[in-house]
Amino acid sequence: MKKLRTFLTIVFALLTFITFAQDKNLMMYVGTYTEGGNSKGIYTYHFNQENGIFELLSSATAANPSFVTLSPDGKHLYAVSEYNDGRQGAYSFDVSEDKVQLSNPIFLPTAPKEALPRTGADPCHIVSDGKYVITANYTGGDISVFSLDAAGRLEPEVQNIAFEGKTPERVAHIHCIIPTPDKKYILATDLGNDRVYRFCYNKKARKNAEVLTSQRVAYEVSDGQGPRHLTFSKDGRFAYLINELGGECVVLSYRKGKLKEIQRIMADEGGGRGSADIHISPDGRFLYTSHRLKKDGIAIFAIDPKKGSLTKIGYQHTGIHPRNFAITPNGKYLLVACRDDNKIQVFERNEATGELTETPEEIEIDKPTCIVFGKSN
Predict the structure, then answer these.
(1) Which pTM was predicted?
(2) How far is CA 17 from the centre of its chain?
């Protein structure tokens, strides 16, 4: 019996070690701009979240897949095709252990040439819950909703929602789509109209029924701020909005579909009018925002766990044009897609202070625009 217990202990230890080793090696997917460069489209890597070492596995051909997202089960990858001339739309890919394989592209119909903006033009953000895929279309000033078949592949657009400018001089620019933590609503940022819209999400919509309904303005920022991206706190009580043009970060309380402003704090330190991305560390203690065009870098904030408010604690310089960034699930590394430097920088996070330290590791890649971590393999 003693020998059996010893044997089982050894087996358990080995299994634990193997699981731990697997958890170190994440799948990482990178979207890029292909126009005017040498990128093929989407790149798949292994990234070791314990030591920051990476390995290129494969690439998949796609046109301007500037933003990508994984399905909730990690079996499918969806990407926009950011154009405004009839090539715009979305891709779906099947995900394996070492690559993504194109399963179905869907390209949006265009309006007549004299009618601008075109429907679905310049899709720049994409989300999926496993039943629908939704894109934010920047130049089109609209939202596209696609259904998915049983195999997770894209089907044709089932709903399109267009937005008008608040005045004749203003044009809608939808930049981000995000579900609320309770999954009952969808929020959309409109950079052109300085608004955040809220929709009821009819996930169980029958065929030909509207998926997004009951549109309303959930929050309106000051004129010229240009709301870009949103993220929620771990407990779902607070939303954080980065304004591209004004450079401010806005803290909002969230309850039952309603947003209420708590705080506005300047994030951009260069006045570049190019603030871009926003993420919270996995432990929920720190918030990061990226800024471009002048003094390219990452602003660092500490989060008050009770009030949700922010205190700025640092600013880390990066390569040129940090459009997007991602934090590893264990919180140890923050990776920055520096589009105009053709590289992804790897920063190590101090989990106690939230500060960033640049590592010697850099991933050379043409025009990187989006980083997504998948399950370990």
Answers:
(1) 0.92
(2) 32
